[in-house]
């Protein structure tokens, strides 16, 4: 059976992971300057350390946090289970293994709900004033 060229190319990309073509996939753990694991976040999930949110094994704490426009929030996974910080409508800040952190800066006022893709009952929101 012959596979059309375009279908073959799509299957080849899928076999390679389909995203980026090199380096660690989004969300793959890396080591930060202190030796602690960090996430490889989406471009929108970067910034300097901000107001802390702790990720427990199955909760975000605090569940709602308020920052001023231009402020940042840093999520730290203190649990033993991998989690995500995924904003409703995007971005997904990647998978955070135990001990990993990720930061996002918020420039626009509004309410930004998020959840863990792995554990959908885990929800939170960032209110930007």
Please provide a written account of the structure.
- With 129 residues, the protein is mostly beta strands.
- It has a single domain, classed as Cupredoxins -  blue copper proteins (Immunoglobulin-like), CATH 2.60.40.
- Helix content is 9%, strand content 39%.
- The chain has one helix spanning 5-16, and strands at 30-31, 37-38, 51-55, 60-61, 64-67, 71-77, 83-87, 92-96, 101-106, 110-115, 123-128.
- The protein has a five-stranded mixed β-sheet, with no helix packed on it. Strands 4-3-6-9 form a four-stranded mixed β-sheet, with no helix packed on it.
- The longest helix is centred in the N-terminal third of the chain and has 12 residues, at 5-16.
- The radius of gyration is 17 Å and the shape is globular.
- Residues 1-40 have low confidence and may be disordered.
